Amino acid sequence: MKTINIDSKVWREMGLSDADYQRICQLLGRQPSYEEIGIFSVMWSEHCSYKHSKPELRKLPTSGQQVIQGPGENAGIVDIGDNQAIVFKMESHNHPSAIEPYQGAATGVGGIVRDVFTMGARPIALLNSLRFGQLDDAHVRYLFSGVVAGIAGYGNCLGIPTVAGEVFFDNSYRGNPLVNAMCVGLVNHQDIRLGAASGVGNAVMLIGAKTGRDGIHGATFASEELSDESESKRPSVQVGDPFMEKLLIEACLELIAAGVVVGMQDLGAAGLTSSSSEMASRENNGIDLDVSKVPLRESGMTPYEIMLSESQERMLVIVEPDRIEEVKAILTKWGLDATVVGRVTDDGHLRVRYQDQVVADIPATLLADEAPVVEAEFKRPAYLDSKQKWQVEDLAQPGDLVQAFIDVLKSPNVASKEWVYRQYDHMVRTNTVVLPGSDAAVIRIKGTTKGVALTADCNPRHVYLDPYEGGKAAVAEAARNVACTGASPLAITNCLNFGNPEKPEIFYTFKEALRGMGEACSALNTPVTGGNVSFYNETNGQAVYPTPSIGMVGLIDNTDNMITSGLKNTGDLILLIGEYGHELGGSEYLATVHNLVAGRPPAVDLNTEKGLQQFLVTAAEQKMLNSAHDISEGGLACCLAEKAIAGKLGVDVNIKLSGKRSDVILFNESHSRVLVSCSPDRLEQVKSLAAQYGMPVYSLGTVGGDRFSLAVNDTTIEVPLVDLSRYWKEAIACCMKPS
Amino acid sequence: MKAGIIVFPGSNCDSDAMHVCQQVMGWDTDYIWHAENQFARKYDLILIPGGFSYGDYLRSGAIARFANIMSAVADHAKGGGYVLGICNGFQILTEANLLPGALLRNNHLQFRCEQVWLKVENADSPFTCAAQEGQLIQVPIAHMDGNYFADKETLEQLQENNQILLRYVDETGLLTAAANPNGAIHNIAGICNEAGNVCGMMPHPERAAEHILGSADGRIIFESILQHWGER
User: Fold this and answer.
1) Residue A576 to residue A677: CA distance in whole angstroms
2) A373 to each of A11, A50, A289, A578, how far by Cα in Å?
3) For residues A532 and A92, what is the distance between their CA atoms, to the nearest angstrom?
4) What would the pLDDT profile of A469-489 be if each residue is shown by its tens digit?
5) Chain A closest CA to B115's CA: distance in Å?
6) Is residue B61 left, alpha or beta, with left meaning phi > 0 and alpha meaning psi from -120 to 50?
């Protein structure tokens, strides 16, 4: 083996600072080897070490009666009764998707699915939260269609339905799209496995795909800003093999059923390096690896390359020595490799050998827990004051509000996402009882009456204009979407996408968004069970909007009580639960019609929000409502239109509010508001229940006919339902048509 | 009624098929592993489920046709047993020459998952006999390669022998280009072999066998098999 001369160029190229290098020398009490520098560089990268985010993440509420496993493991776990639990997590794959959209998105799905089945759970649903630039840009269309095809190509092959999510378009994401994938799994309590290397003397087995040179230094790449040179990092993007992953899922679940797994962890960012050091440090044990045993895809790979490879579809399993043969038999049945590559030791060291030669010997805790923590500087960005100064009085009401309404409805942020989700198999496993397109999807749990409601939400424009209120609102809206189905919100996972945290203005937005998120999670009793931080989402120095995506899980005891968003019956009443609202700042209307991103975004009153959600859950239990849909992007007008389109029923609504502007009533995005429908004989019941929770009820009109008729003061919007439906359903497909 | 569901590496609708056969229909149902050379017992129905057998990286169903179990499936078909291939199962049956024609890539080159309307063209087959001729049923599709193709001669034979069981139509029953989700020739969604005991269809009746899933229309396929078996 050739010796490599170590100078400052080596660690700098791997992404370590001179101070980091000094700290490593100090911690080890000697100079590190080339391999050791590589190992430190990935483990101390932002992506693996959370060095900027850790102090802020610690402030989030993470406990609750429902929480079985909080942050720190491969995924979070919440109890859903009957000895069952839900395992879930969201993760980003932004940088890979920016330069290789299909594979970047596909391997993002692969990674998050492994995080869930490594805990012993059967993956039952996928969600995603996607952000792109505007669709009039050909490169954006290339990224958008590639990412959607990548998610479809991987998830569909696995047979896991992709059931919900969100897609948002804004110029700030032009060069740096966000691809956040979430996986949800179902597990019986006794089958839960953790990523821990317990039992000194136990075998460390590598199972699944062979190891190649792909993705070396992917974690470091994810911890840099993108630039015009990023295309040259294409080799840092891994290539996915969903068939291999499908086999791995079945094999691992069979291993767990056979009771041979002591601990299990997937090989994600930083490959064998991170999985082995994290498993060892969780138990204060060591792991001794002989990388010459690792099955390779190509010859001549160095220990350094083997340790840092991010080849996909691999798992590390801790097995008692006398059960190795059982593991091999199960893996052989699925046509996969299972190789003993090391053993668990009691000295706390990650020791890497190549046959007889020790190439790295590092206390595992130094890698997993002792990465430098940065107390980042923060400073309120100057743009906030100037943006927030804007007031609705500065804006002239457009002459043609009907056209304004159609424009907002056709905006890709409001329009139907059918073009996206019809490419995803959202029905496989025959459990999706509320399909994509509603406020939240619902997955039934066969053999019980239960259902799990799932959603992913964040309005990044609101977070940009007020990080604290926007962070709070992301949680509140996700919980509201879950409650609209009749389910009680349980817990969240998050994916925090921000720019370069070394810039104080960026870090301020991070800190403030998390403060808002934390407050909302506490108030709504939806603790954070894990997630992922993605910094450095910048292209040539320009950051994306601060985007803390929230993935929420809720539980409904009886799926017979579920509520969906579409109108149901002619003659039903349409009711507004909550106020008419007034906050136009940061709205889709301002952005689409006035080309303006300004104002204070709507603020959430968490008490009101909680009251509304409790009302929705109780009203569902008592079967009072025939539909419910939350008012968000596009305001009351678009909410009503979506209800009519989904229900294929017209509406006749008349709102008279003297002294209020029609555009404000139609398009404001104030929180804690829901449009519901009910049969007229239920009206008094609905009113008295709403009063119990302090919620006002306004009767807006009736369901029926084939026209969408919405009158507000002296403005009347009157559109045939078929046209309305066409505007909304075909908007994105039209943008994607080859010109 | 005894049913066997073939499981290839990469099958992913096997447990959905099991749920319908066992829980919804109440049949005595087993999984059958692809590597077996023969069935452990005699089955009335062999079901080849959807999924991506062996990853389908080459051409959908092209590898699966060589699986050990496929000779047992062919013998079962030759002996007059029912064989139902859904989605990937249909692709495999055409690759194995148990059904005529081929499934090409969807004409729009995208995976497509959505509810479609189907018209029952022939209500005499073991797979459709519980339906009325011309009946419309709503059943979802989920595939990338569902664009059925056959040459002119084969199409004429299919037509003459009443082997076309299901076609894509709009919700009023009209056979239109807009109602065709993948470019399939003559809007063909499902066919059977000349003897009538082997059927392939791209739509997923197992996903539309309970009202909670939005449609229970697909159940008629399973009820037909049961009815035909009872009358045998």
Assistant:
1) 9
2) 19, 8, 28, 44
3) 7
4) 999 999 999 999 999 999 999
5) 10
6) left
Inspect the interface and report whether the beta carbons of A159 and B12 lie closer than 8 Å: yes
A372's CB contacts (< 8 A; 6+ apart) are A19, A20, A23, A44, A49, A51
- Alpha-carbon distance of A167 to A145, in angstroms, equals 12
Q: Locate A188 and state its tokens.
A: 């019986």
d(C-alpha A80, C-alpha A485), whole Å: 17
User: What is the amino acid identity at position A589?
Assistant: Y
> Which residue in B13, B87, B129, B192 is the catalytic one?
B87
The DSSP secondary structure of A637-677, one letter per residue, reads HHHHHHHHHHHT--EEEEE--TTS-HHHHHH---SS-EEEE
Q: Could B16 and A446 be called an inter-chain contact, meaning their C-beta atoms sit closer than 8 Å? A: no
Give the neighbor-by-neighbor strand order of the sheet with B2-7.
B28-33, B2-7, B45-48, B82-86, B198-201, B188-192, B164-169, B112-120, B136-143
- The CATH number that applies at residue B178 is 3.40.50.880
- A286-290: strand order across its sheet: A263-266, A314-319, A203-208, A337-345, A286-290, A349-354, A357-363
List residues of A whose CB lies inside 8 A of any B CB.
149, 152-153, 156-159, 241-244, 246-247, 334-335, 421-430, 432-433, 435, 444, 446, 559
CA-based nearest distance A4→chain B, Å: 41
> What CA–CA distance (Å, rounded) separates A510 from A513?
5
CB pairs under 8 A between A and B: 82
- CB A307, CB A38: distance < 8 Å: yes
| A206 backbone dihedrals φ, ψ, rounded to 5° | -100, 125
Token reading at A583? 């906050």
H or E segment to which residue A618 belongs = helix A606-621
Q: Are A535 and A223 in contact (CB under 8 A)?
A: yes
The mean pLDDT of chain A is 94
pLDDT band at A344 (very low <50, low <70, confident <90, very high): very high
What is the total count of domains within chain B?
A: 1
Asked if B15 lies within 8 A of A429 by C-beta distance, the reply is yes
Q: For the CA atoms of chain B, what is the radius of gyration? A: 16
Minimum-distance CB partner of A429 among B16, B57, B140: B16
H/E segment holding residue A112 = helix A101-117
Residues of A in contact with B107 (CB under 8 A): none
Dihedral sign from CA coordinates of A145, A151, A157, A163? negative
Amino acid identity of residue B83, one-letter, is V
Give A523-538 pLDDT, tens digit per residue: 999 999 999 999 999 9
The HSE-up count of residue A34 (CA atoms within 13 Å, CB side) is 13
Are residues A483 and A615 in contact, defined by beta-carbon separation less than 8 angstroms? no
Q: Which residues of chain B lie closer than 8 angstroms to A335, CB-CB? A: 9
Q: Residue A317 carries which DSSP code? A: E
List chain B residues with CB under 8 Å of A157: 10, 12, 52, 55-56
Predicted-complex ipTM score: 0.97
In terms of DSSP bridges, do strands A707-712 and A715-720 run parallel, antiparallel, or are they unpaired? antiparallel
The identity of residue A348, as a single letter, is G
Distances (CA, A) of A351 to A217, A342, A348, A354, B187: 20, 9, 9, 10, 62
Pick from A178-187, A261-270, A293-302 the range whose average pLDDT is largest. Answer: A178-187
Catalytic residues of A: 47, 93
Give B-chain residues touching A428 at CB under 8 angstroms. Answer: 12-13, 16, 50, 142, 207
Contacts of A156 in chain B (CB under 8 A): 52, 111, 113, 142, 144
Find the mean pLDDT for residues A199-221.
Answer: 85
- Chain B closest-CA separation from residue A152 CA (Å): 7
- Domain hosting residue B64, numbered range: 2-231
Angle at B69 between CA B63 and CA B73, to 5 degrees: 105
